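User: Could you walk me through two proteins back to back? I'd like the raw sequence and the structure tokens for each, with a short line separating them so I can tell where one ends and the next begins.

Assistant: Of course. Protein one, sequence then structure:
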Amino acid sequence: MIIAVAGLPGAGKTTVSKLLEEAGFRVYSMGDVVRRRAGELGMSTDEASVYLRITRGARAIVMDLLNEVKDGSVVEGLRSVDELEALVERFGRVYLIYVAASMTTRFNRLKNRGRHDDPRNPSDLIARDYRELKFGLAELISRADKIILNEEGIEELKSAIVDLTSSLH
């Protein structure tokens, strides 16, 4: 089984993935693939993400990971049902976690994170959300096996992940 993690920017996908890694899972990040490809292409990560999906198809990013990912791993950063289906075709069972948080919470997290491509104001975040949702991210909510509302602190999130991993074993 593969665990896939999806959610809008700043929802806590990376934090959830790190907690799963601490629980013994190997984590593969689709965002790392996009950042690597962006560097190769001389584009911003947003531009590269759109460019790769337009020129190589909706599964472009996840296809870069398929040869590396092993059963029992976590794939962080799914953006579409197409990407989920690529994992299902390869591994059979995929347990999808959708991480959600309010726009205010997400904006504050992104502002404090400090990546060069993070939004500078709420309007930037709305535009980024729109791009993410156009890829099909919203459709993943209805396919999620677990939705984690990540509005509280890290201790509450850790507790949710402990409960989740206990139920998976």
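----
Protein two, same layout:
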Amino acid sequence: MKLEEELRVENANLKAQVADLKAPIAQLSEKLTQVQAQSAHDALFTALLGAV
């Protein structure tokens, strides 16, 4: 029974750690999307300049 309780506590701790990481991961994902969009914009701009 003690092992079962230890596993419950460990599971709760891991769930809390996952919850704590969700916001920073979402922020990094948003930043990555912005960087990818900027890179695509920069590549298009460079291609257009090269075509002139």
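The radius of gyration is 22 Å.

Let me know if you want the two compared in more detail.
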